[in-house]
Amino acid sequence: MTDAAAGTLASRVAGKDTGSASVYSSVYPGELSAPPLRVRLATAEEFRDAAASAARAQREWARLPAPVRGQVVANIGRLVARNKEALSRTVTRDIGKPIAEARGEVQEIIDTCDFFLGEGRRLYGQTVPSEMPDKQLFTFRNPVGVVAVVTAGNFPVAVPSWYIVPALLCGNGVVWKPAEYAAASAHSFYELLVRAGLPEGLLNLVYADGEQTFAGLDLALGEGLVGKVGFTGSTEVGRRIGELCGRHLQSPCLELGGKNPMVVAPSADLDLAVEGALFSGFGSAGQRCTSLGTVIVHESVHDAFVERFAAAVSAAPVGDPTREVVYGPLLAPKFAERYETYLDWIGAHHTVHGSSAVGRITAADPRAGFVGDPEDGLYYHPVVVDGVRPDDDLFRQETFGPIVGVTTYRTLEEAIELGNLPGYGLSAAIYTRDPQEVFGFRTGNGAGMLSVNNSTSGAEAHLPFGGNGLSGNGSRQSGMWVLDQFTRWQSMNWDHSGRLQKAQMDVDHPVAELDFDLPA
Fold first, then answer.
1. In sequence order, which residues have a C-beta less than 8 Å from that of residue 364 and are 6 or more positions away?
2. Is the dihedral of CA 435, 438, 442, 443 positive or negative?
3. Is 255 a catalytic residue?
4. Which of 22, 329, 414, 492 could connect to 377 by a Cys-Cys bridge, CB 3.0–4.6 Å?
5. Would you call 88 exposed, middle or buried from its count of C-beta atoms within 10 A (0-12, 13-18, 19+)?
6. Radius of gyration of the chain (CA)
7. CATH 3.40.605.10 applies to domain 9-256+473-489
8. What tens digit of pLDDT does each residue of 232-274 get?
9. Closest listed residue to residue 152, CA positions, set 175, 108, 186, 102
10. Is the pTM of this model over 0.85?
């Protein structure tokens, strides 16, 4: 699969290397001058072939008892735990994620496996009472067949595990299309997955660009080879995938972007709120779907909060992701180019805090306390933009990078309205000591995930993860809830009465005196 000397990776379909479309050069964003990793990209037809391979292997895989499949999930967890440090360092070297966050991401795979190994013994159906005598009703979870998983590279191993692990547990085959710029992380994770006891061809790794992936999905769906599509990425691409799946009468699992608000109430612990805003706004360089978009601060504590937040951001260590920093480089050149367009949205009515400059960190525009040498990497100054307005692009649009807006509110109702206004609905947070505000915020905010006195970022393997509105189609990952994405319910009735009993027609109804009245 890998020619280490040449620094080339290839897709893996039915146990063989493939990829005949073109070659992608993946650069390390912390050191652009380093030799790039070459990635052989696959064609639409090769994507379809991967789905066919998964479909062939899936039939036998689904016949294995679910507890046995759960043991394979346990094996995945043990292999990842054994290789935790190596995989973490690959993630850091691949996309520039700080090593502490990379270790946390790899731990999330282990936690996911720990949870789902037990679900192999809990893929419960139900025995349902019938309205007829001598008749039994049952429900069963059946695998969907083949799951096509398309993931972004900001969480190159944890998010794929949210799809792949439960999909395999439920008896499905998988085609995984990771982000090209995170190919090394995907390769390493794939190597661990296939050594856990999976039959050859059940899990296929396909590197492909967006258009070939889309065309490959269309082919595979049209031939009935894919029963579910899971996608994590931008809202724009999610719309296209949703439309494609709809044409084939499929409902995808879409985990999209976010413009996640954090409300800071008058009673909030401001130091705690600043700590949460710093982590959720600037951890991973703001390149999470759950990253903080706008802090909505009560006008009575606005000045105090901004003063503390600006100081914390200004002091945050930025730089070499192998060291102790809040964030490292942006993921890839295309994200740096896009981020610079967001900086153009800063207007005259805004006040900027957080660093000595705006834009890329260079010798000409240095940042105090930078860790390492910024000249050869995609390192950017953190930006806090105070005074954002509801009609600003900075307020309404997702800004994938180290930039956070601040605005004010007077009433909780206004804060809720502001939080919902951009139309995303992934994650939201409130800092308050008032239980009434907590539950008022919970009732009014439309996000799929809420935090109280905690950041907008952070997920646990046994909780549902997902959003609404522009953030997704209501599907959920993680925990027992994701099982509904990778199984389909089948009902069965078993009539052992020896005669044909017709539902709704041959039902016995007890005789009741419904016109009876007690004496006055």
1. none
2. positive
3. yes
4. 329
5. buried
6. 26
7. yes
8. 999 999 999 999 999 999 999 999 999 999 999 999 999 999 9
9. 186
10. yes
Condensed to tens digits (0 to 9), the pLDDT of residues 24-39 reads 999 999 999 999 999 9
pLDDT at 230: 98
Comma-separated ranges of CATH 3.40.605.10 domains in the chain: 9-256+473-489
User: Among 255, 324, 340, 513, which one carries the catalytic annotation?
Assistant: 255
Single-letter residue type at 300 = S
Dump pLDDT digits (tens) for 310-332.
999 999 999 999 999 999 999 99
pLDDT in tens, 63-117: 999 999 999 999 999 999 999 999 999 999 999 999 999 999 999 999 999 999 9
CA distances from 159 to 92, 156, 458, 478 (A): 16, 7, 12, 10
Reported as type and span, the H/E element at residue 486 is helix 483-486
The answer to whether 169 and 196 have CB atoms below 8 angstroms apart is no
Q: How far apart are CA 401 and CA 332, in angstroms?
A: 12
How far is Cα 485 from Cα 143, in angstroms, rounded to an integer? Answer: 9
Task: Tell me the CATH number for domain 260-452.
Answer: 3.40.309.10
The residues of the chain that CATH labels 3.40.309.10 are 260-452
- Residue pair 180/127 in contact by the 8 Å Cβ criterion: no
Q: Tell me the C-alpha distance between 328 and 98, whole Å.
A: 6
